[in-house]
Design brief:
Elements (H helix, E strand, L loop, with lengths): L25 E4 L3 E5 L5 E5 H6 L27 E7 L2 E6 L9 E4 H6 L4 H7 L17 E3 H6 L1 H14 L1 E5 L7 H7 L13 E3 L15 E4 L11 E9 L2 E2 L2 E5 H11 L1 H9 L2 E7 L2 E7 L2 E3 L5 E4 L13 H18 L6 E3 L6 E5 L3 E5 L2 E2 L5 E8 L1 H13 L8
Length: 403
């Protein structure tokens, strides 16, 4: 180690001693990257190229936009530091001469800890939703007052965290005003339009172009799986509900898919890997898309579903696989239709369901339109914008450049 506390290039040789500053994590430089021994006993590895292209100095990152400006093609793939130093604040690196200008790199320990790339570290950082069944749900537990959500960041955060954790929240105390649902949605993000427009009215009417606009029972479903990017967060505000029947139903798609994976792994595998066609066709639109019914991520974690019995098909997979698909699809629909899974309740005037359309399926019991009017108004916001709003509320104004 040099007298100034940095590690010279000789430290990269196999017989060199690594930095051992006890007030911070210990660094162990290697030929192509640096290992960090964390005080808790965990270790992480960071390639020099990875560190160089993540440099936050003014020559590499625009300090206002906080986007990279570095010329990636000018960084040598085998780049190595001229020196490294570790102090209680973080890791400091000086780079040898190369074609991409740089003032030197600094990475706080918190930033390096938050960006460990080992699989175990990534999985520990991962946020997972809590699956639920009917007995674990009630309206009061998921409810947030409209005025509080509209005027208080704490109230809005409570609403968004309900949707993040369980996939659903209930907003109460909405005035019986036309399009007030748009004001609630825009408190979170911009409205996400669809072929139904910026908003839609859900009531029984003649010449309905959608089953939701009838009095029929609706099976558990995710809205608009026929779109390549289905709507994200859905809002359904009840303006009037005087009809007999028509109770609302919510179903946790993650709980359904988990139950299928446990009871019939082959059916789960089929529904999560084989794409099928979903169609939405009317006088004014013709929308078709292919996708699996169950959506899983790279780790096999269940993200959501595209279950919609009214919009699936014709199922266009090989005839020899069709019956297996139908059995699997019926099994998932049967789980979603079970009393154990379904949370059924009456959506009263002044209440608004807010739910993740990818995660939570919704349904409705049939009702008698002659017994009274049932009118809901709905809209969507993009899931990405929802996640962004949630992150901003949690950040509480702290400078994101220092995280």
């Amino acid at each position: 180690m040099k007298q100034d506390g940095t590690v010279g290039i000789d430290a990269f040789r196999t017989n060199a001693s690594p930095t051992t500053d006890v007030s911070s994590p210990r660094i162990e430089p290697g030929t192509d990257g640096v290992d960090i021994a964390w005080p808790g006993g965990q270790r992480s590895r960071h390639l020099y190229y990875w560190l160089r292209e993540n440099c936050h100095c003014p020559k590499c990152t625009h300090q206002d936009a906080w986007e990279r400006t570095v010329d990636f093609l000018s960084i040598p793939l085998d780049i190595a530091p001229a020196s490294l130093s570790a102090d209680p604040g973080g890791l400091r690196i000086e780079w040898g001469s190369h074609d991409a200008p740089c003032d030197g790199s600094f990475f706080s320990w918190a930033w390096l800890d938050a960006h460990r790339m080992e699989r175990g570290a990534r999985l520990r950082r991962k946020r997972r939703s809590s699956a639920w069944i009917s007995s674990e749900s009630d309206k009061r537990a998921m409810s947030v007052d409209f005025a509080r959500a509209m005027t208080s960041d704490a109230g809005l955060l409570e609403l968004l965290e309900h949707v993040e954790d369980k996939g659903v929240a209930l907003v109460t105390g909405l005035p019986a005003e036309d399009l007030i649902v748009l004001a609630l949605a825009e408190r979170i993000a911009l409205i996400e339009g669809s072929h139904f427009g910026r908003h839609f009215d859900v009531e029984s009417k003649p010449d309905a172009e959608n089953l939701a606009y009838t009095s029929h029972r609706l099976y558990p479903h995710n809205d608009l799986p026929s779109r390549r990017f289905p709507p994200g967060i859905q809002f359904l505000h009840c303006l009037q509900n005087d009809a007999t029947g028509g109770d609302s139903v919510l179903v946790d798609g993650i709980a359904c898919a988990r139950a299928l994976r446990q009871s019939d792994p082959a059916a789960f595998e089929l529904l999560s890997t084989r794409a099928v066609t979903f169609t939405s066709i009317a006088d004014d639109w013709d929308i078709v898309n292919r996708a699996p019914v169950i959506d899983v991520d790279e780790d096999g974690d269940i993200l959501g579903t595209r279950l919609h019995p009214a919009l699936i098909g014709p199922v266009d997979i090989e005839p020899e696989s069709q019956m297996a698909f139908y059995r699997a699809h019926r099994a998932l629909l049967g789980i979603a239709s079970s009393d154990e899974i379904q949370f059924r309740f009456r959506l009263d005037a002044g209440e608004c369901q807010v739910f993740d359309n990818h995660r939570v399926m919704h349904a409705r019991l049939g009702f008698d339109p002659a017994s009274g009017r049932r009118l809901l108004q709905g809209c969507y916001v993009c899931r990405d914008d929802f996640v962004s709003r949630l992150a901003l509320l949690r950040r509480e104004g702290r400078d994101f450049r220092k995280t």
